[in-house]
Specification:
With 259 residues, this protein is an alpha+beta fold. The chain contains eight helices and 15 strands. The chain has an eight-stranded mixed beta sheet with strand order 4-3-5-6-7-8-9-10, with helices on both faces. Strands 12-11-13-15-14 form a five-stranded mixed beta sheet, sandwiched between helices. Strand 6 and strand 7 form a beta hairpin. Helix 1 packs antiparallel against helix 2 and helix 6 packs parallel to helix 7. This is Histidinol-phosphatase.
Length: 259
Amino acid sequence: MPSHTDDLRLAHILADDADSTTMDRYKALDLHVATKPDLSPVSESDSRVEDVMRKTLARARPRDAFVGEEEGTTGWGVRRWVVDPIDGTKNYIRGVPVWATLISLMIEDQVVVGVVSAPALGKRWWASYGDGAWTGRALMSAQPCRVSDVSRIEDASLSYASLKGWEKIGKKNQWAELMESCWRTRAYGDFWSYMLVAEGAVDIAAEPELNLYDMAALAIIVDEAGGKFTSVDGTPGPNGANAIATNGRLHDEVLKRLE
């Protein structure tokens, strides 16, 4: 697959613009919050970030499609920019710093570029296909990400976002048993669970209900850090309805326990 250096640079520019927009309104007393049909909150910053990125990409990559959480899909073609303007909106509107903008480029069903930018944490992670995963404040000041070498569930640290959804997909008991088997469990939540897997600080991350824009950027970063990202049924990448991310060594065992 050809190099995606220019696309990665563009994704960083999009992330810079998103960071400026989100931080400008973070903890603002007059921040407006609406409720989407699924009863999840959407702040004015979600919409503003997506609008800014759509306009930039319309100029820089006019032939590419755009898939956003707030306004859906526009354009068509094999190249799709998949964006979650604020992953962790509930944290954002309450002043909790664990939220991020997720930006990815997919060619057909393959993610080739991913950037996760969490400005309130002062962190950014990124990857492009075949070039490894990295973290830092900018392309020129980065450190490589690498998953852990933990090989036993009993020694593993597991992070999650919510417990409720596991019952919906008929996996409540299996999930509870998996958690009980692990050495440590914490709800770091949302994007952060997966970035901690990529950094080797956590060994397993999982969520029972997700969309493509929740997962695409996370999947390539975990994969390029040496880990594995699939759905609960083993579908590779972010193309399923949920996510299991591990350091790779634990993956088959985790999937088996959730059968």
